[in-house]
């Protein structure tokens, strides 16, 4: 990890041998967690599916590293802020798709973002395309670029606070918890950075690119990797808690509940893993890749599938019972769903890689409405106060009401392939034109 304008820091360790260079703030959470067993756990459990012809579970493994006995922890302390800005006070932690369960809903915003008119508040020029979802904590926006840089930008003014190099492209949307940023890179590394300075705290080395978004819950970091592993990592020192090996790249960001991890792989499977040791509970096989982040709520897990080719048709939206992994419903109308769905107010919202926005009843799987944007959609939407913000590849961000009416648009010079983030009445979104945009209401003059 290299700080812009400074000498390179040596990585404090190679995976599984850790030297902590800076302290990490204490971790807690609201979802309960567990630690691992001493020995690898065999996983030859039958696969529950709705299809009786589905193949049985393969012989993948979960390897656990010994740790102390798990304990319940209290609610997290607020994240320390750097250089406070009175005009802007954001949340104290942030993760991709808004929370550990990936609901995609901005909960109880302090002020509503613009709905009927969108105007640029400021723009920040980065070194390359921005395809990560920005994370807003306190008064700072954090994001990564295809140029291999992680940035911290003032949320009110749009000025740079710091930037550091990550060795290769950053397609992993950062999580910011307890004063630390967790982010992966194509340099085959999961980094922990100090949120105030960008200084590296530790680096966890993998065997391939880390493009999924880390989730940090109850003192553990969970992340998937192109090396066909799902990792649980100790946030205090970057040591491995457990690893679960699968048979395909993991481009699906995890969903975390009190006891389980839900995650997909490119070889057409959704997994439910035990959170304490990574052992497999069930798998559900599909006919396409599972690249969306699963959404988990009220005993159901929702996810989409893609055939990996945005120019062809071949994807579905699924709802499974979380207990057994059995099908509740399947919605087959979309062409291809590679981006994470949103669950809000009894509806599942999904974007079609080819061109459509879909609203489906969460209980029945029946279509509520669809909207043809006539544009590829290559990033997940976000929902706030009855409105859905959708980034599009035709250089546009659209705002839809929950009834399917397009109420406003914002345009740039290149495609939007960054999932938007909303904080304090402002929409933050990255663009292929190398720009981070802050979007708000038009000025009075």
Structure commentary:
The radius of gyration is 20 Å and the shape is globular. The protein has 445 residues and is an all-beta fold. It has one domain: 7 Propeller (Methylamine Dehydrogenase, Chain H), CATH 2.130.10.10. It has no helices and 35 strands. Strand 5 and strand 6 form a beta hairpin. The protein has a six-stranded antiparallel β-sheet with strand order 2-3-16-15-14-13, with no helix packed on it. A five-stranded antiparallel β-sheet has the order 1-8-7-6-5, with no helix packed on it. It is 0% helix and 38% strand.
The H-level CATH homologous superfamily, spelled out, is YVTN repeat-like/Quinoprotein amine dehydrogenase
What class, by secondary structure content?
A: mainly beta
Helix tally equals 0
What's the pLDDT, averaged over the residues? 83
Q: Compute the gyration radius: what is it?
A: 20 Å
Percentage of residues in DSSP E strands: 35-45%
Indicate the CATH class. Answer: Mainly Beta
Helix content: under 10%
So what's the overall shape?
globular
Counted up, domains total: 1
**CATH fold group:** Methylamine Dehydrogenase, Chain H
Largest sheet at a glance?
6 strands, antiparallel
Order of strands in the sheet with most strands: 2-3-16-15-14-13
Specify the CATH architecture. Answer: 7 Propeller
Number of strands: 35
End-to-end separation in angstroms reads: 44 Å
Stretches with pLDDT under 50, minimum 5 residues = 3-59, 66-88
């Amino acid at each position: 990890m290299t700080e812009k304008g400074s000498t390179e820091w040596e990585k404090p360790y190679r995976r599984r041998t850790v030297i902590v260079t800076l302290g990490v703030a204490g971790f807690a959470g609201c979802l309960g967690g567990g630690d691992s067993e001493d020995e690898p756990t065999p996983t030859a459990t039958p696969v529950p599916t709705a299809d009786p012809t589905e193949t049985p579970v393969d012989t993948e493994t979960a390897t656990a590293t010994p740790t102390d006995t798990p304990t319940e922890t209290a609610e997290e302390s607020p994240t320390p802020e750097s250089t406070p800005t009175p005009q802007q006070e954001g949340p104290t932690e942030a993760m991709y798709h808004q929370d550990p369960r990936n609901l995609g809903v901005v909960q109880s915003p302090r002020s509503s973002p613009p709905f009927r008119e969108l105007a640029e508040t400021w723009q920040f020029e980065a070194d390359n395309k921005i395809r990560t979802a920005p994370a807003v904590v306190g008064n700072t926006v954090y994001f990564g670029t295809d140029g291999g840089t992680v940035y911290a930008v003032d949320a009110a003014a749009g000025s740079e606070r710091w930037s550091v190099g990550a060795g290769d492209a950053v397609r992993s949307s950062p999580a910011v918890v307890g004063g630390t940023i967790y982010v992966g890179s194509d340099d085959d590394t999961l980094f922990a950075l100090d949120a105030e300075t960008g200084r590296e705290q530790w680096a966890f080395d993998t065997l391939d690119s880390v493009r999924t978004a880390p989730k940090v819950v109850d003192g553990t970091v969970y992340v998937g990797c192109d090396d066909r592993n799902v990792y649980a990592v100790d946030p205090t020192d970057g040591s491995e808690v457990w690893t679960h090996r699968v048979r395909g790249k993991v481009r699906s960001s995890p969903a975390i509940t009190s006891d389980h991890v839900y995650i997909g792989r490119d070889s057409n499977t959704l997994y439910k893993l035990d959170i304490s040791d990574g052992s497999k509970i069930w798998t559900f096989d599909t006919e396409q890749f599972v690249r969306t982040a699963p959404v988990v709520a009220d005993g159901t897990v929702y996810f989409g599938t893609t055939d990996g080719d945005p120019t062809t048709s071949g994807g579905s939206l699924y709802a499974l019972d979380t207990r057994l992994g059995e099908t509740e419903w399947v919605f087959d109308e979309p062409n291809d769903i590679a981006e994470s769905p949103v669950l809000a107010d009894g509806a599942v919202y999904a974007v079609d890689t080819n061109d459509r926005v879909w609203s489906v009843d969460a209980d029945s799987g029946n279509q509520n409405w669809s909207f043809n944007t006539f544009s590829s959609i290559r990033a997940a939407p976000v929902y706030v106060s009855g409105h859905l913000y959708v980034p599009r590849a035709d250089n546009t961000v659209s705002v839809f009401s929950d009834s399917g009416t397009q109420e406003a648009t914002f345009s740039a010079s290149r495609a939007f392939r960054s999932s938007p983030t909303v904080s304090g009445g402002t929409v933050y979104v990255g663009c292929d034109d190398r720009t981070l945009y802050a979007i708000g209401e038009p000025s009075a003059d």
